[in-house]
Amino acid sequence: MHRIRLHYTLGPDGGPARIGNPLLDLLQAVAATGSITGAARELDLSYRHVWGELRRWEGVLGHGLIVWEKGQAARLTEFAAKLLWAERQAQARLLPQIEALRADLERAFAVAFDDSAHVLTFYASHDEALSCLREEALAETQRLHLDIRFTGSVDAIRALNEGRCTLAGFHTMDTPAAGSLARRTYKPLLRPGRHKLIGFARRTQGLIVARGNPLRLASLADVARRRARFANRVLGSGTRVLLDELLIDAGLAPADIAGYDRTEPSHAAVAEAVESGEADAGFGIEATARARGLDFVPLAQERYHLACLRDALEQPATQALLRLLRTERWQTRLAAIPGYAAAESGEVLSMRRVLPWWHYRTVRAHAASPDSASLHPGYEEAGTSCSPDEAPAESGTRSPTAR
Predict the structure, then answer these.
(1) How far is CA 27 from CA 65, 88, 99, in A?
(2) What is the mean pLDDT of each run of 10 residues along the chain (403 residues)?
(3) Are residue 184 and residue 204 in the same domain, yes or no?
(4) Count of domains in the chain?
(5) Domain span at residue 322?
(6) Final residue before a domain boundary, out of 50, 80, 112
(7) Strand ranges in 248-393 using DSSP code E only, listed in sequence order
(8) Between 20 and 30 A from 334 (CA), which of 46, 99, 263, 321?
């Protein structure tokens, strides 16, 4: 079976909403004029080109296209006539879809030619508020398009460092400890002076359980003690880091949780596992639990951060985002999402204050430290303390245009 590939033309000229094919244009011209010369004249092509293309397509398709008889008008073979029929049928049946696709493409490309519109590429840990922010940014007054690709927090920051996005979304405990698992996970990926943090939101994470909480789960210790079937998040996600942090704080090991190795790609997938009865509990955000009519047991308050490279702060798209995050309209909408609240939204924050993991003094590389001596499974310390020349970049002030 021959496969169909679609393409489009970008240019200033308008035209009907149709999907063209050069071969079918050639066949139509031959059928209409009765000769190769006439087809070439109608299409403003050379005789040699038309003749060569018809021969080439016969080889590609394995069928004859033109009946070549000396002294007679050129005519289409039965196969070529059926090709034209199939094309007419497809155009007639798919015209509404083709028109809609063309309109969508025109709207998308219109952004590229609109100097007042901006596009920001996000790699971010899965988050309900970011989906709402994308809708808010599309308002006519904002002219801001957010290209958000949800991935794990670790992968999001790596994408930022590799130049694959402008902003990375990740999250940590509201006040992460200096020796925390979050520190060992994120510190090697972030550098004061190179990265900047933008305030976004506070949100609540905890246990997603069935309606009525039939197992009366109130903590991770209850999950372990009652051998509740658990739905976990994948390694590399910020929620997995947070869960492992809470397990350490509770004196629990992964083996204590029945289903710790059963992973889901998103908060919604965790909630679906609980709703379907495949799991008794999972770990995720309150908003997803409430949206599905499930119960929720809060266990941790955390801050969702937006990280960018320092040079990106002055870009028009980033400035447009900062203005949007500081609007009363957005912060009101954010507060309406269960488990969310504004947290210095749109402010450029001191990394030292929000993530107190750096000490600005010259430090020799060390083989081990109290917080890296026993790592949780799947995590690895990969960084050292900052050098003094990085300290001036973090002044502790909060300004939407801080450098």
Answers:
(1) 8, 13, 24
(2) 71 62 90 91 93 92 87 87 88 77 78 84 92 84 83 95 96 85 93 94 97 98 98 94 96 97 93 96 96 96 96 94 95 96 94 78 43 43 38 38 36
(3) yes
(4) 2
(5) 118-393
(6) 112
(7) 263-264, 281-285, 295-309, 340-342, 348-349
(8) 263
CA distance 208 to 40: 68
Cβ–Cβ under 8 Å, residues 366 and 384: yes
Largest CA distance in the chain: 94
CA angle, residues 232, 233, 237, in degrees to nearest 5: 150
One domain, residues 37 and 101: yes
Where helices occur in 326-369 by DSSP H, the ranges are: 328-335, 351-354
pLDDT at 98: 78
95 with 124, same domain? Answer: no
Strands 295-309 and 167-173: antiparallel
Q: Are residues 281 and 382 in the same domain?
A: yes
pLDDT of residue 11: 67
- Amino acid found at 25: D
Identify which of 305, 303, 302, 301 has the alpha carbon closest to the alpha carbon of residue 189. Answer: 305
